[in-house]
Amino acid sequence: MLTCNKAGSRMVVDAANSNGPFQPVALLHIRDVPPADQEKLFIQKLRQCCVLFDFVSDPLSDLKWKEVKRAALSEMVEYITHNRNVITEPIYPEVVHMFAVNMFRTLPPSSNPTGAEFDPEEDEPTLEAAWPHLQLVYEFFLRFLESPDFQPNIAKKYIDQKFVLQLLELFDSEDPRERDFLKTTLHRIYGKFLGLRAYIRKQINNIFYRFIYETEHHNGIAELLEILGSIINGFALPLKEEHKIFLLKVLLPLHKVKSLSVYHPQLAYCVVQFLEKDSTLTEPVVMALLKYWPKTHSPKEVMFLNELEEILDVIEPSEFVKIMEPLFRQLAKCVSSPHFQVAERALYYWNNEYIMSLISDNAAKILPIMFPSLYRNSKTHWNKTIHGLIYNALKLFMEMNQKLFDDCTQQFKAEKLKPRKNRRRTGLSCAASPSCLRTSTPRAPWRPTAEPTSCSPRTGASPGGPRQAADATPVLDSVENTYFLCHTNQLHSQSELSSTPFCRQ
């Protein structure tokens, strides 16, 4: 007796107790029957493979019939791969129906629904239990789409918008093996069915919108972006307005989501593809990245720096001028970051020849922005590797324009002296004020110690008594000048730092 559970068009069969038409009888091999009977047997096998088995609650049940189905699927894969003129018109609805019955299903809930959200980087995904059959169904359908006998004009009656929508829903599967097959399948459909292209792009947009603004959870964002990277590469020029809107309203806001690391390489590739197609999009793209720049998440900052370098690799000099000032203000902050990986990644820009040529052409604007951060962190940053990279950057700036470098040095020192002069002026005016004289506490007269003590470099004490306040600034300036001259000499002696190797991530 046939016992089954229906879920839409899906039917799970208990083959052990089945005597009905769905019993998976082991049929003959297609190659063993006369050519006139092969199409009929092919259709029988396709219908036989619409029987579904329980791999979850009782994985050891119906092992014989599971093997019969697996063998039939494997045989059909070989059959359409190595034979021509076997995909006839009656085969199309049978293939699409068999694929739909096996694949279009309600995905299982998250592997940890009551606990922390599934993290693709940390947690093990839930693998599909029925994969031994599903894998062969995917392989068969791909060979069907890629066959030289495949005719889209016939197939479009069965592979329609509803079919595509159900296929896209499967991209949220936790099983990376299934998502990889889905990626290839959707890409083949996009390539062969011109009438479905706009619909596919629209539905992918909708998935992204829900992901950005509602759920912030979807397992297939990286795979969908990988498909889009190939689609964007084929866009005709000039770009349509809808494609530009997609970049600005969908792709760029994807940088806001906290799980960016899962799909960032694919996202960066899509963005760079757009800029290679239309350089005028550079300014809005860079300004959006600066707007979404992470404030407290250092690994995410490193990702942004990686993407920015990829953008600068393809930027036009005329577009660079438009964004260089806000861009290098952000880079100056990154150089000053206490997280050494952020500072290191920013300083590696000075190892990129094309970026250095852009900087050299615009040094008069860029050096005044970068110099304070570089000079200050050459002395204060805790990481010695950062010191070496900063000396390298300063050396390159010095070689570009010695006079500009000297001017920036003097201006920086003058800016540092202003607060000291203001404090000294405030102290002198207070000392001359009668109110200060009335309220000040008299100091005990200074007496030299019985035995002279060694000078402390920090206090500037000496056996002859403390220095006067008026002498403090020249001494500090002298020490600072000596310190800076030492670093300048190091810049000339550390030329090998300019060739520090960097493996782009």
TrEMBL record:
Origin superkingdom: Eukaryota
Molecular function terms from GO: protein phosphatase activator activity
GO terms (BP aspect): signal transduction
Gene3D superfamilies in the record: Leucine-rich Repeat Variant
InterPro entries in UniProt: ARM-like (IPR011989), ARM-type_fold (IPR016024), PP2A_B56 (IPR002554)
Chain intervals for the UniProt region annotation (Disordered): 432-471
Cellular component aspect of the GO annotation: cytosol; nucleus; protein phosphatase type 2A complex
Keywords: Nucleus
Subcellular location: Nucleus
A family per Pfam: B56
Record family assignment: Belongs to the phosphatase 2A regulatory subunit B56 family.
Protein name (Swiss-Prot/TrEMBL): Protein phosphatase 2 regulatory subunit B'gamma
